[in-house]
Amino acid sequence: MSQFAREINALPGPGPRVVAFCCVNPFMVADLAGELERCVKELGCSGVKLYPPYHHFYPNDARMYPLYAKAQELGVPVMAHTGSSVFKGVSTSTLTPCFGTMCDGFSKPRHRDGA
């Protein structure tokens, strides 16, 4: 976790205010599950955020499944960018209906308090 996040979280008050999420681009990293595990265990990340429209992949692509399985094993959430963009070349066609099929295999619910 960054020094900024540690300082903000050290302020008095309830719970962590800032949590770090890593971003794993399937075109930049060969071992997606290994990278997620490194980010969680070594860097203190609390989850992973994916950017399918920007990284041009489908969330239900089979090469992503090891990442989802590792996230489930580690008990961390997977969040994905689903909005539109002002940047040229960004397509939201990579999103729907992919999430339904992806979630079918990795739908172990977990509350943020660990329950």
Question: Mind explaining what this structure looks like?
Answer:
With 115 residues, the chain is mainly α. The chain has one domain. The protein contains five helices and three strands, in the order H-E-H-E-H-H-E-H. Strand 1, helix 2 and strand 2 form a beta-alpha-beta unit. The mean pLDDT is 79.
SSE order, one letter for each helix or strand: HEHEHHEH
Number of domains: 1
User: What does the largest sheet look like?
Assistant: 3 strands, parallel
Shape: globular
Strands in their spatial order, largest beta sheet: 1-2-3
Low-confidence stretches: none
- Distance between the first and last residues' Cα: 24 Å
Mean pLDDT: 79
Features:
single chain, 115 residues, mainly alpha, 5 helices, globular
Précis, in short:
The protein has 115 residues and is mainly α.
List the helices and strands and how they pair.
Elements: H1 3-9, E1 21-22, H2 32-41, E2 47-50, H3 52-55, H4 65-74, E3 78-80, H5 98-105
Parallel strand pairs: 1-2, 2-3
